[in-house]
Amino acid sequence: MRLTVIGTGYLGATHAAAMAELGFQVLGVDVDPTKIERLQQGDLPFHEPGLPDLLRKHTSSGRLRFTTSFEEAGAFGDVHFIAVGTPQRSGEHGADMTYVDAAVTELARAIRKDSLIVGKSTVPVGTARRLQALVAEEAAPGLSVDLAWNPEFLREGYAVEDTLHPDRLVVGVDSFKAESVLREVYAYALDRGTPFISTDFETSELVKVAANAFLATKISFINAFSEVTEVVGGDIRTLADAIGYDARIGRRFLNAGVGFGGGCLPKDIRALQARVSELGLDRTMSFLNEIDEVNLRRRDRTVYLVEEMFGSLDNVRVAVLGTAFKPNSDDVRDSPALDIAARLFSAGAEVAVYDPEANQNSAKRFPRLTYCSSLVEAVTEAEVVLVLTEWDEFKRLTPESISDLVSGKRIIDGRNILSADRWQDAGWMFRGLGRRVEVEAPILSA
Ligand code: UGA
After folding, report:
1. Ligand 1 pocket by C-beta < 6 Å: which residues?
2. What residues does each domain of the chain span?
3. How far apart are the C-alpha atoms of 81 and 119, rounded to whole Å?
4. Whether domain 208-291 has CATH 1.10.260.40
5. Which residues belong to the active site?
6. 2-198: CATH superfamily
7. Which of 11, 14, 209, 215 has most ligand 1 atoms within 8 Å of its beta carbon, as the pocket-test mutant?
8. Whether the model pTM is above 0.90
9. What is the dihedral angle through the alpha carbons of 395, 324, 95, 186, rounded to the nearest 10 degrees?
10. SS3 312
11. 323 partner at 20 to 30 Å CA-CA among 46, 114, 357, 409?
């Protein structure tokens, strides 16, 4: 069985390399010739642990190739995965379906043999059924071109592991044949006992957005309690630990801090609301508005904590540690960390930024921040240090290692990864999101 993967971003490139690892002949397709050229040379255009090795292994073995040609894809593949983006439409909450529609149309026209198109992109409910009609219209007469939806649950930073060893497989199908092809594609995971949920198109589309909406809700739930503990005193981490011991609640995704970002959770909760409103259910998902707002207020709060320290931010030297939306990624799409850095800059601060992987992507969005090649460079002469992405390097940060470098001992822990006691004992003013403000040691400014 030969596979194609249309769209070679975080999702598609990972899926293509993982399928090659499982023994399939795979052709990756993208409209961006520069990206395709790099991938063909085994050069991954983004940061994803473990993926560069897999990509090199299979571009060398010849099992994985890349092209910009839909004609080539249509002649090559028995199964075609659609993995193009569905970003938020500019100025609106709904998902931009341009890329999915274009990919499916062009592919359907180019297909030269009986085949199955499998959508993996996150889409508004109703899309698969609409695309099924589109494929029937566009595919050459006489060919059997089937459609299925197979949402993807991989997390950036763990993409390879999540693709090779998913915790469940969900397929939305309209024929036994489509299901049996997908069982063959995923035989490796199925042999290892991975739950396989075969359902209709609509359920499969909804499963994906329901999962992301639930995760976003968990994060904003704990962050809403942060707003309370910040006023009444208390420690949000202890609260999360204590409720997390209840197996019905669970501790995961209850880490309070600057909130969620990335290319999925924020736009998916907005697109879900937009889609459900279109269906006439205006109030049904309106709680997701609150989830979004709680999330965005964490960014306001972080900026406020700096303002509170200095009054005016004019020329205040700020060090921002971390701009990626989460560790082990160079992705800065809707990153709370980068947004906070940019807002501090707009308010007059001098902002020195260091992220182990995301400096380059951050600089493309906000070229006027000062990008540093190390933590030491970023904190030198800083009047306040903000830790905004929980990279291991920042979890290990100690007051001893930077006290002599900064010009003011002030730190804000935006991810609840540092020990307040330890920093306060070393004479630092410490602020954490959702954390009790202890009696201060005097602030030592140079
Ligand atoms: C998310 C889902 O977790 C994946 O299952 C899904 O496949 C993917 O979206 C997608 O739709 O493609 P991802 O965007 O890679 O994956 O990132 P997450 O690990 O979910 O983190 C999202 C954001 O939430 C990050 O900014 C992270 O820092 C934040 N977060 C996460 C918290 O603030 N607190 C937590 O406890 C957990």
Report:
1. 122, 152-156, 212, 215, 219, 253-255, 257, 259-262, 264-265, 325-326
2. 2-198, 208-291, 297-432
3. 6
4. no
5. 264
6. NAD(P)-binding Rossmann-like Domain (3.40.50.720)
7. 215
8. yes
9. -70
10. coil
11. 409
